[in-house]
Amino acid sequence: MNPVKDHLDFGLHIVFIGFNPSLRSAEVGHHYANPRNNFWRILHRSGLTPRLYDASEDGELLKLGYGFTNIVARPTRGAEDITREEYREGRDLLRAKLAKYRPHIACFVGKGVYTEFSRRTKAGWGFQEELEPVVDGVREFVAPSSSGLVRMPMEEIIGIYRRLNEAARTDLE
Known about the structure:
The protein is built from 5 helices and 5 strands. The protein is of the alpha/beta class. The chain has a single domain (14-172), classed as Uracil-DNA glycosylase-like domain (Uracil-DNA Glycosylase, subunit E, 3-Layer(aba) Sandwich). Strands 2-1-3-5-4 form a 5-stranded mixed sheet, with helices on both faces. It starts with 13 loop residues before the first strand and ends with a helix.
């Protein structure tokens, strides 16, 4: 399977960072393409997007100031299939991408994504302001995974993403 292309550019407000692409995302070449993944619904319901986008439109979100990447590029059935070596390489590559593009906010879609990247053992939801960011000048936001397997109530997940939306809008003002 092919990796899913990053959507990155300079001057982005938010870069969404996942574990790695699903097999479905690799098949179609777009981020968060598994129909059981709630990512696109969460973005819309939280106010981050003005309408409900489809995974096939992921590149269009660059116009809204949003980018996409993953800590590991290799598609797998699940995050449990990612190797320690892939995480080690992925951390270095992700750090370099964030240092190069300097988004205002790096949104880690899942606590596990953030803890793998930062090598910190714990993280709360929202901004990680009590610690120095891994990449200087890039604010770190931890959001729940959008996987359909997540047991957290959808309204609670959307509420956390609304906080991200409010912060992004404040940054623009």
